[in-house]
Specification:
By secondary structure, this protein is α+β, with helices and mostly antiparallel strands. It is built from 4 helices and 7 strands. This is FNDC9 protein.
């Protein structure tokens, strides 16, 4: 069939074959397998590791993702038929290309950088959330402490006002007692005048107030 393999590298190879008249309305099958043993070359489609279908308009195909320093067997048939010995070719791949090795290293470094960046972002987000949560908690505690202090101050002021009122009442009570002792009848009359509706029964004044106000039995006479 005249199959040739060209442009062999450590991971690729170009397979070229002549066009077949029987495959005009069909497709080409490019099959290849690594570490081929010539003693077990039954050329069965099931024995091949990879198989690619190529349109009949093409007469070449680039096999990729090959292992470096490896022996391969490649066969080209029409419409997935089992290949024969004249439809196959053996070739060896070269060492790994420096360019592909550098690309592999770059891809590895890029993957490590992306992974580390994602981890750093996650850690930064966790730390930021913790700081915000702690800040909100401190502000809440401060506001609660201020509210408690204001309530305590209010209670203290109320207690002081009650104490002052009690003291004033205590200071005023002796004077009122003296007034009651000196003029009990006049205080009673003043109470009756302030609340006339309560005066329905005759009031019996003391001896001193009897001279000034006569007993009439009615509050109107006092007025």
């Amino acid at each position: 069939m005249g199959i040739t393999v060209q442009n062999i590298t450590g991971s690729t190879a170009m397979v070229i074959w002549p066009k077949m008249a029987s495959c005009v309305d069909s497709f080409y099958s490019v099959m290849y397998h690594p570490n081929w043993n010539s003693m077990l070359s039954s050329y069965s489609r099931k024995s091949f590791q990879k198989e690619e279908r190529v349109p009949t308009t093409r007469s070449s195909f680039v096999v990729e993702n090959l292992a470096p320093l490896t022996t391969y067997l490649v066969c080209v048939t029409c419409q997935s038929a089992n290949p024969s010995s004249d439809q196959c070719r053996v070739f060896n791949t070269l060492e790994r290309d420096p360019a592909s090795a550098s690309n592999t290293k770059k891809e590895l470094a890029l993957g490590i950088w992306l992974t580390s960046s994602v981890l750093l972002l996650i850690i930064a987000a966790i730390l930021l959330y913790g700081c915000l949560h702690l800040l909100c908690r401190r502000r809440r505690e401060r506001s609660q402490g201020r509210q408690g202090t204001s309530e305590q101050d209010h209670e203290k002021v109320w207690t002081k006002s009650v104490a002052c009122t009690s003291e004033e009442l205590g200071q005023q009570s002796p004077g009122m007692q003296d007034t009651e002792e000196k003029h009990p009848g006049s205080i009673q009359l003043a109470t009756i005048i302030e609340n006339p509706s309560a005066c329905k029964e005759p009031v019996t004044p003391t001896s001193k107030s009897w001279e000034r106000v006569p007993t009439t039995g009615q509050c109107s006479a006092i007025n």
